[in-house]
C-alpha cells in the first residue's frame, strides 16, 4: 500500500494559493497567490519557513511562479497583465525586468530547458515566446494565436525547445520554431478532452504528455515521429500526438493540475474534489496503449480545491500542494 | 474558423465568437417621447412593440455597425452579421444587381458610377493562384469586374505616389521639429498605412504611441478622396452616388474604410464604400465555377487625363509599398545631400526586422527599420516605452513579411509553404515597373489643380488623417471568465 504522509502544513498566503514551484536544487520553493505576494521558503530546523517575501511586484493576483533551470531567476505571471523576472544579482531578490504585451490576465509562465526562452499565456488567447537577450532584456520571439479561448497553461518539453499549451477551448497545442524564418508555428493540436484543459506535464523523455481537464479525466498522449515503427501516418514531417490512455472514473470534479515525476514516473493530480491522487504505470504496460493504476488517494488533502501539485526535482518523493484554503502542504510519498 | 484579421487585431479582443447582441457594451440611444405613464412594451413574434402611444408601434431594432465597433474600446467583432452589412462580396454584388435592375426598368439610379480600385498585392496573389502573368491577371480581373457591371477599374499608382510624397514631406517636418524641440514626440515616425497596426496602437497604446504615427493617409484612403472628390467633380456627379470599391490584400482594410474619419458629413458618404480581398475574389470565382484564366480581358481605365498611363506599378523597397526606402532616400538627399545611398538592410533578430542606416563623416545620421509582424511590433513598442529606440523611421506592418503576405491574400495550395509563396510574390513585385513618386507628372499636376499646391490646407485635409486613443473600460459586462 502506498500513501502520502503529511510532513508539514503551512498557512502560506492570505486567500487562495495558486501555485508553488521547487527551485531546481530542491531545497527552496516559491509560492504565490491572490494576496499578490511571492514567498520563498527554505527548510529550517523547525521545518519549512519563509526566507523572503517579494511584494509590490504586481498589482493583481499572481497566478504562477517559475524558477529558471539555472535557479538564478524567478518569473511570476500576474492578472495585472505583466510577467516579472526576479533575480538577486544585487544580493537580494529584486524585479529587474517586466514583460509587457499581454492584453490582460497572464495565466502561466514557463522557462525552456536551456533557460534561453520563456513562454507566457493568458486570457487574451495568445501564447508568447520570449528570448532572454541579456542584461535584463527580454525580446518577443513569437505571439501565437492558435487557441480561440483563454489559454490556461504553458509548459516546455524537458530537453528540446518544444512548447505545449492548454486552453479553455478544450485543446492542447504544440509549437516549435521554424529555423528558416525563426518564427514559431503550431505543429500539432491535441483534441480529445471535452472541457477546459487546465494543465499538462511531459514525462522525462518528452515523448509522452499527460493532460488534465474539467471533464474529470487525465489523458496520456504519445508522440509518433515520422517513419515510426507502428506505421502511424505522419504528415508534413511533423510528429503526431495520439491519445493512448484516458484515466476516467477516478476524479469526481475538475482536475486542476497534473505532475509527472521525472524520476519515479509517478503521476500526481490536484482536483476540485480536494483529493490528491497518485497514478503508477503498470509493470507490463503496452507503450502504445499504456495502463495506469491509482495507487494512492489522499482524501481531504486540503479543505478546498487543490490548485497545484509539484514533485521535488531531486529523487526524494516529496510533493508540494497548494489550495484555495490558503495552505501549502508538503507531503512524502511512501510506497510500502 | 480561424480569424482572418491580422494577429495584432486578434489580440485586441477581436472576438469571432460573440455576436454584438450578446455582449456588446455600446449604449443604445433611445429617442424619448414624453408620456404621462410609463411605457408598455409588448413582445410580438416579429419584434417589440411600444404600446404607450395607444396603438402598437414597432420599436426600432438596434444595429451595430463596424464604425461603432471601431469607436469603442470593447471588442471588435468580426461577426458576419456586422461585416456583411457593408463590407463584403455579397454587398458588392447586391449593389451591382440593384443597379442592373433599375437600369432595366428605366428607374432613376441610386448609384451612378461604380469604381473599383485595385492595389498591386492582391493582383500578384491572384496571378500566382491562377498561374497567370501580372499583365494577364490584371486584364482578366478588369474584364471580370466590367462584366459584373463595374464602370471604371483603376490602378492605384497615383494614390501610392501621393502617400510616399506626403510621408517624405512629413518626415522632414518631424525631423526639424525634433531638432528644435528634443523633448517632443516627433521621431521615430511610424508608418500609418497598415490599419491593423493603427487600430492596435489606438486600442492598446493610445496617447503614448499615436503622436509617432504618420498622419499621412494610406493609399486606399487617398484613392478614396481622389475618386469621391476629384473624379466625382470631374464627372459632375454627387459623391454619394459614386460607389467606390477597393481590392486589398487584407481584411483590416475593411475596418479602415469604415472609420468615421473617412466619412464626410457634407458629402454624406464614405471615401471607400466596400473593400473586398484576394481571398474573397477567389471565392466569388469559385462560386461561379470559374477560373480567372478563362475570363475575357479588358484594359484598366484611365479617367484622369488624355494620355493613358494605366498599369500596375511597384515601388523600390519592400513589397508593402516601399515606404522605408522612399522616405529614407528623400531624407538622405534633403537633409544630408547624399544621393543614391546604399539601401542594404541588415536583419536584426529575424528577417522581419530589418535595419538600414546612413553614415556621414563616420557618424550614423539616419537609422530606418522595417518591422513586420506582431512580435516585432511588440519589441518596437517596448523599445519606445523604455526610451531605447534608435530609429528615425519605422515601416510597421502587422502581417509577417508585410502586405504581400496580407491576411486576405490567397492561401498557398496544399503542400506549398507560405514562405515559398511570399518569395514568389516578392519576385513578381520586383518585376513590376517601379514608380518614382517625385517624377509622376500627373501627381504634380493634381497637387496644383486639385489640391491648390503642395503644402496647402486642402492637401493637408485630403491627404492626412488623425488617430484617436481609446480609453479602456473594464465594465463588469465586458469581463469574460
Question: Which features does this protein show?
Answer:
heterodimer; A: 336 residues; mainly beta; four-stranded antiparallel beta sheet; 28 strands; 56% strand; B: 481 residues; alpha/beta; five-stranded mixed beta sheet; four-stranded parallel beta sheet; 16 strands; 40% helix
Radius of gyration of chain A: 19 Å
Distance between the termini of chain B: 22 Å
Strand residue percentage of chain A: over 45%
SSE-based structural type of chain A: mainly beta
Hey, which two chains have the biggest interface?
A-B, 21 and 25 residues
Low-confidence stretches of chain B: 14-23, 77-81, 474-481
Q: Oligomeric state of the chains?
A: heterodimer
Rg over alpha carbons of chain B: 24 Å
Biggest β-sheet: strands ordered side by side in the sheet of chain B = 8-16-15-14-13
The number of helical runs of chain B is: 17
Overall geometry of chain B: globular
SSE order of chain A, one letter for each helix or strand: EEEEEEEEEEEEEEEEEEEEEEEEEEEE
Relative strand content of chain B: 5-15%
Q: Sum up the overall morphology of chain A in one term.
A: globular
Give the count of helical stretches of chain A.
0
User: Roughly what is the average pLDDT of chain A, rounded to an integer?
Assistant: 95
Largest sheet of chain B: 5 strands, mixed
The tally of beta strands of chain B, per DSSP, is 16
Q: How many E-type strands of chain A?
A: 28
**Average of the residue pLDDT scores of chain B:** 85
**What percent of the residues of chain B sit in helical stretches (DSSP H or I)?**
25-40%
